[in-house]
Each structure stands twice: as structure tokens, then as C-alpha cells.
Amino acid sequence: MLQHFSYKPMYAHTQLPGWSFSFFFRNARYTGEYLPDGTIVWTDAEPPEEENVKKMVHELMTFHVYE
Question: Which InterPro entries match (predicted)?
């Protein structure tokens, strides 16, 4: 389960899509970029169980950004 998930637009005052996000997973902090096509680019190390974590990030971004 992801904890303390937060996100913000990558580009201030523009219409360009893209978001930076961060969260804690298994007591470690991870950061990344969520691109308009749904691609996730990790800016730090990749988390364990990466595919499961990506699914959780997609669900959260869909809920917060696209709805």
C-alpha cells in the first residue's frame, strides 16, 4: 500500500500535462513523473514489486487528475 501519496503539475502556469509524484512504500520514499500517456518514469530507484506499484499509481492518478 502506498502511503503519503502526493502529486503536482510538472509545469507551472502552462497547459502542458505531466505530473511529479512521491510516496512511501515499505518505509522508503519514491519519486517519479507521470506522463500524459500514462508512462511512469522513476526519478530515484525503482520500488520493489514495480508492476504492482505502477498499478496503484495509475489508480491514484486516474482518481485525482482525470476525474
Answer: UCP037692
